[in-house]
Amino acid sequence: MLGEGILKGLAETARNFLGSYVSKDRLTTVQFPEERLPQAEAARNFPFLVYDGSDWQAGLRCVACQICEKECPPKCIFIEKSKDKKPDYMGKPQFYPAVFNIDVSVCMSCQICVEVCPFDAIEMDNAFELSTCDRFGGLLWPKSQLAKSNDYFHQIHPTAASEVDERLAEAKTKADAKTKPLAGAASSTSPQPESASTT
Amino acid sequence: MTSRLTTPVYEEMPEDISDRIDQGELLEIALGPHHPSTHGVFRMDVVLDGERVVKLKPVFGYLHRNHEKIAESASYLASMPYTDRLDYICSLSNNWAYALAVEKLAGLQVPERAEYIRVITAELTRLVNHSATIGFLTQEMGASGTPLMYAFREREKILDLFESLTGSRMMCNYMRFGGCRVELPSGWLEQTKKIVEEFPRFLDEYERLLTGNEIFMARSQGVGVLKKNLAINAGITGPMLRASGVNYDIRKVDKYGIYDRFDFKIPLGEHGDVYDRYMIRMLEMRESLKILNQALRDIPAGPIMDPKAKIRGFRPKPGESYGRIESPKGELGFFLISDGSPNPYRYRVRPPSLINLTVLEDMCRGYSVPDTIVIFGTVDIVLGEVDR
Amino acid sequence: MLEEIKVRIESAVPGCQLEIIPNGSPSGQHSLLLDPPHALEVAKFLRDDPELRLDYCSNVTGVDWLDTEQSPGHLEAVYHLYSMEKKHGPIVLRMRTENRSDKVHLPSVTPIWRSAEFQEREIFDLYGIIFDGHPDLRRIMMWDEFEDHPMRKDYVEPDDYEYEPTPHDHVLTRAKEHVERNPQ
Fold it and tell me: What is the pLDDT of residues B377-386, one digit of tens each?
């Protein structure tokens, strides 16, 4: 019969329309911003710097090794190394970044900086409501805007954060075991740090 | 219902028509680049006789970002996020093609679990791409948005899968040279199995809506015929080639990855018109579901990266390699020349969308302007790939 | 396998000079260097020969080799051929120009494989190789009035082409001065 295909198609459309009142599967509109869908745990938007503890300047994990600056594909990270050192979570004196800027208008959220960082100092945030009226200065984020605490990291990416914490705690216990002067044979392959005290 | 009321008027291109244009007999007009149906910034300079197309010249380059030159000054790993942005709908396929070319160049071995993950993500990308293409095709025929939104509703589920695996819905940046970047999160395989089980129901609904529809058939059968010999000579690949009847699918020819372990068929068309290309895409989605079922059943445990592969300081030996895959749009190939330094000496992308546009004029000559838009929709181009 | 093909081409097309260029990487894709005067006949033989039937030209690439102490610079076009009928490949062909400045003509294979049409236009646009026999050789990616060829290794961007000042430049210098002014 001519028109049979069109009638079958109209039956499909009717089924979808009436079904949207009944089943959640057919009504997929989310009334944003009153309703929000939870973001996936791995979701990423722009990077941020992690600091341990409560003082963001003293607890910043970044040691200004500049590996992320070299590996960044669009070259949106700008780092200036400091002249002096400050102790890191293990007590060893390390450089820190005097200037750490990320140009968010260039950053393409590729996550390569996170992958190559040897100190787990930079991680991906998932905040996306970031609009600003200043097109140039407002999109160049300095260290103060990028530094967020480790508790915040635990909130947004729980599994990744606990994994990083475990790894750092393990490294710390290994380093502590090596600096104990009374323990038997210290391993001869790794060099002893000069100052044994950690406080 | 396959009869067309009018047949194409021009069989060959008339030699010199510029005087007919000057006298006003023919109209030269630009379709695009700001046009809602051109899949991006793309222009077609058409010469019209009334409503019939006499000559058509595609003009592109509006999205040329010089990806190949950027890759010459960046390391091999730094080009990986840029490959996401080539064919921005199927980013995981692009990643795989680039990783394949580099693995051939450097001689890296990919572990089994990583190969299975690559096949699963590539077939999911094929589902994503084909549903978007068919949705946009119906949009161009005038069904303002309804089948498109049904296709996008299914697509959202797969994009949520990609987000929980790689962190981003479209710019995934997931493959690395020698494997995959990160392990599958817990529960991902079960979620994927659920989605793959429910997908055939959507395909059946979609077919009921479109395949027997008289309006759809009248607008697509007999339109934009591409003959087999022209398709082979012009280097067309992908669903367009198979709709013209040529059995060439790189998954079966090259057997890259582990595709020789899966049992799937290659659908072939007979007439090479728009309706065949639509049916080929629907059938390919069903074959992809078969592959997905087999892969999800057989995926082994194990490592996901080659232990010899390096993230930083990757310097392959001097040489060159050409690696290609069957992306949802055709043959996507990467040609790399290395001279021993961390950056490639020459990095070339073989874009399927650009090569498939070679025959746009031959397919559109003699048809009217709305038919041209429909034919153009089945060529299935993405401007990020055409212009790079 | 490439040696056998070379022998067959030499017997079928008399007078051509071919050379096999080895490939250092594990991919094992060695290439065959053609000489421009006989390239069209070799291409026709490769397409029509009943054993090879290389009817699908998949990829045409342009490469720029700068002048070195050992050899003068030249431009190159690399062709990857496959066969849709016999399902084998790839066979890699190369053609070189004589130098980078004035002798940059190469024969076009578009009459034999139509897939080279847009790709040779792109090589003309971005590298400057002029293909003789191409039906419609004009710029494809850049606009028609553009001069110079952007993908060459010695291409210098013009100073006066408009770009939007991004925060890197002057903000970066400001940051550096800030550090110098306030040493910690």
Answer: 888 889 889 9
**CB-closest option in B156, B164, B216 to A41:** B164
Task: Tell if the CB–CB gap between B167 and A124 is shorter than 8 Å.
Answer: yes
> Cα–Cα distance between B58 and B357 in angstroms, integer?
8
Q: Which CATH number fits domain B67-387: 3.90.226.10, 3.40.140.10, 1.10.645.10, 3.30.750.24?
A: 1.10.645.10
How far apart, in Å, are the Cα atoms of A126 and each of A45, A51, B62, C126?
A: 5, 17, 32, 40
- Name the closest residue on chain A to residue C172, using Cα atoms: A78
Q: Is C78 helix (H, G, I), strand (E, B) or coil?
A: strand
Q: For residue A188, what pLDDT is reported?
A: 47
CA distance A43 to B212: 41
Taking an 8 Å cut-off on Cβ atoms, the answer to whether A83 and C172 are in contact is no
Chain B residues in contact with C152 (beta carbon < 8 A): none
Using left for φ > 0, alpha for ψ between -120 and 50, and beta otherwise, residue B226 falls in: beta
Asked if residue B247 lies in contact with residue B266, where contact means CB atoms within 8 angstroms, the answer is yes
Tell me how close the Cα of C62 comes to any Cα of chain B, in angstroms: 9
Domains of chain C by residue range: 2-155
d(Cα A165, Cα C73) in Å, to the nearest integer? 55
How confident is the model at residue A194, as a pLDDT?
42
User: Between chains, do C167 and A137 touch, taking CB under 8 Å as contact?
Assistant: yes
In this predicted structure, the answer to whether residue B6 has a pLDDT above a threshold of 80 is no
Query: Would you identify the CATH topology of the domain C2-155?
Result: Beta Polymerase; domain 2 (3.30.460)
What DSSP designation does A57 have?
T
ipTM computed for the complex: 0.86
**pTM of the predicted structure, to 2 decimals:** 0.89
Put simply, the chain B residues between 251 and 290 with a CB less than 8 A from any chain C CB are 253
Query: In whole numbers, what is the pLDDT of chain C averaged over residues?
Result: 82
Q: Is the pLDDT at A180 greater than 90, yes or no?
A: no
pLDDT, averaged across chain A: 82
Would strands A122-124 and A147-149 be described as parallel, antiparallel, or unpaired?
unpaired
Which among C167, C172, C178 has CB closest to A136?
Answer: C167
For range B110-123, the mean pLDDT? 93
